[in-house]
TrEMBL record:
Name the UniProt record assigns to this protein: Class I SAM-dependent methyltransferase
Source domain of life: Bacteria
Gene Ontology terms describing biological process: methylation
Keyword Transport (UniProt): no
Organism, scientific name: Streptomyces laculatispora
Enzyme nomenclature, EC number: 2.1.-.-
Enzyme's top EC category: transferase
GO molecular function, one term: methyltransferase activity
Amino acid sequence: MSQTVPQHETVRPPHPDAASWSTDPYANALRNGHGPLFLRRTDGWLLPLDVERWCAGADAADLSALHRCEGPVLDIGCGPGRLVAALAARGHRALGIDVSEAAVARTLRVGGSALHRSVFEPLPGEGRWGTVLLVDGNIGIGGDPRRLLHRTAAVLAPGGLLIAETAPQDIDERVRVQLDDGRADRARPAPAAPFPWARLGTPALLRHAGLLGWLTADQWEADGRTFVSLRRGRGVLTTSQSADHANSAAVISSQFPRNTSGERPLAGS
């Protein structure tokens, strides 16, 4: 199947969350391969982020999810790229997207393909992806799980699979957070403004997904991490398609484009 790449796509401003994930604490953690790094709620509560695991190779729990992937895979919030790289090494077609330039750069270095883009912006191959990944807490992106589920449905092909990692607790939380490295250094730059985030356990995700018409395909636990796979049913509501959707929908083939107009280069550029 041939690959068509739009040459007239408009460069769009970064998503509002991009400024937060481009701050020094996150970029520095990815460059160094370790934390400490936290999401700090406005009330001061800290959620540790497992940067060391993100920057390592795919582990057994990751593989339990990757083995369930079908067709071409889109990893939303790919971070440093371990899942995209693991899929590519196994001959699987996979693309990561992330609002952090440092994350995209590291994904390319480890052998994955990635774009510097938010899930809420037009994406290549909309409506054609076989599987979408939302792991490492990325079901919380945007702070509105139903909006994210709508958007994911628009990206997937009919009958496509969403694989999401959920919080191990039975929780359904909407918060505003900032990235924090735990230092008390007054000389460091001021943190970016708080951004919306969500935390969902499996019961909450299944409840939201069921109301939107998703079908539960599977749920499992691996090494203390919990996962759910959801099938996009015929009745799933998707986000409305923007006027420039046709410009962003590329035919997916076994080789991703070496460069797209106005975008970061893909692996192999």
